[in-house]
């Protein structure tokens, strides 16, 4: 099962404040522990929302909204994509994430990633399933459901 851990930011992170060397070292150690355990698929930090955009749809039309975004729920600082055996294991890994000093307003979301193996065989034609498998091979992605 794949899970995405989404790190929510706060005003300090959104302002572009760089973390301390100690915190960076802790984050590197955490990422290394994920890699050594064989569960890490990807991990990236994100720039402040001032360097991003949102696309909102109303009445079938897209509107592009440039950052920055002011609502705390919109501040995402980074993510980890992991492959584990259960939601409980994903939560355990998320709870090990080091938090910066004074992490007020920082939060984590843990989301299960949906993939083709989650669709019952009778709901997805074999041709579509093969197409999904071929695409994953081209991208170098793991087999679904592994």
Describe this structure in words.
- Helix content is 29%, strand content 27%.
- The protein has two domains: 2-113, 2-Layer Sandwich (Alpha-Beta Plaits), CATH 3.30.70.1060; 115-146.
- It has 146 residues and is of the alpha+beta class.
- It has helices at residues 11-14, 21-36, 87-95, 126-139, and strands spanning 2-8, 40-45, 53-58, 61-66, 76-83, 107-112.
- It has four helices and six strands.
Q: What do we call the CATH homologous superfamily of the largest domain?
A: Dimeric alpha+beta barrel
Average pLDDT for all residues: 86
The ordered string of helix (H) and strand (E) elements is EHHEEEEHEH
Query: Regarding CATH, which class of the largest domain?
Result: Alpha Beta
Would you count the extended β strands for me?
6
- Relative helix content: 25-40%
Q: Poorly predicted ranges (pLDDT <50, ≥5 residues)?
A: none
The class by helix and strand makeup works out as: alpha+beta
Estimated radius of gyration: 18 Å
Give the strand line-up of the largest sheet: 2-5-1-6
Number of helices: 4
Short description, anyone?
The protein is α+β, with helices and mostly antiparallel strands and about 150 residues long. It has helices at about 10-15, 20-35, 85-95, 125-140, and strands at about 1-10, 40-45, 55-60, 60-65, 75-85, 105-110. The protein contains 4 helices and 6 strands; from the N terminus they run E-H-H-E-E-E-E-H-E-H.
């Amino acid at each position: 099962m794949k899970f995405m851990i989404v790190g929510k930011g706060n005003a300090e992170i959104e302002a572009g404040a760089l973390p301390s060397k100690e915190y960076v070292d802790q984050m590197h150690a955490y990422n290394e522990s994920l890699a050594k355990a064989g569960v890490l698929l990807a991990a990236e930090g994100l720039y402040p929302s001032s360097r991003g955009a949102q696309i909102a749809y109303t009445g079938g039309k897209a509107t592009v909204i440039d950052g920055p975004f002011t609502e705390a729920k919109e501040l995402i600082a980074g993510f980890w994509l992991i492959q584990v055996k259960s939601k409980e294991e994903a939560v355990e890994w998320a709870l090990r994430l080091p938090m910066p000093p004074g992490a007020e307003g920082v939060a984590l979301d843990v989301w299960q990633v949906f993939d083709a193996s989650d669709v019952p065989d009778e709901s997805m034609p074999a041709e579509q399933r093969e197409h999904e498998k071929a695409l994953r091979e081209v991208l170098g992605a793991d087999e679904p459901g592994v």
